[in-house]
Amino acid sequence: MGVPSIGCGCDVCASTDPHNKRTRCSAIVGLPEGNLLIDTSPDLRFQLLREGIGIVHSVIYTHEHADHIFGLDDLRLFQFYLGHALPLYCEETVEHRLRKSFDYAFSDRKQTHAGAVPNLTFERISTATFELLGATIQPVRLLHGPRFQVLGFRIGNVAYCTDTNEIPKESRQLLQGLDVLVLDALRRRPHATHFSLQEAVEVARLLQPKRTLFTHVSHDLDYATTNASLPPGMELAFDGQRIPLT
Length: 246
Ligand SMILES: [Zn+2]
Ligand SMILES: [Zn+2]
Ligand SMILES: [Zn+2]
Fold this sequence. Notes:
Helices cover 20% and strands 24% of the residues. By secondary structure, the protein is an alpha/beta fold. The chain has a seven-stranded mixed sheet. Strands 1-2-3-4-5 form a five-stranded mixed sheet.
């Protein structure tokens, strides 16, 4: 929901620490042949402007929940910068949801003017590795509650695993030897579809990345006091944080 949460006056929502200002989850990866955006959060325009990122060359989706897709219309400008449609890499369920939620962007109706709607194409992905923008992408199957599957992504020795509360055994093998693991940790109390902080710490202990950054963090967790309590090598991520791709 983002922090501050609308209508909430708790200490974290009222905090003046910029690390406690959290937009909806997304990440961008600078690859040899361009910028790969992971998810199009409802805060996408603000995030790209804030970080000074002028162009996106491809988008890859973890899953189709509202907090990960509803910034899609902000991709409208990139057709002009690229000179072609912007490719969206996703699974079938994500494509169905995007086509339904943004029907105007995928209709056959003649446009009144260039750029009236986003110009996007779909590229289907699975759990197989593939090449994109000069890098190898390893999708990682994750469970997000009892009935929902999402993808995490490993690029080099960095993995991004948000919106999950269970990492299947086969996937854990793909997450060995990491320099950085970005991992879902919503709050202290258990949740039906996200790791709690304690659960996420246990996963990090099991996978043993050199460094773990917890993301998708709610107003339950204050940045400074939570970080002071975490084991070495583990910390809450913050908006705008940059990490080297190794
Ligand atoms: Zn709050
Ligand atoms: Zn989410
Ligand atoms: Zn989700």
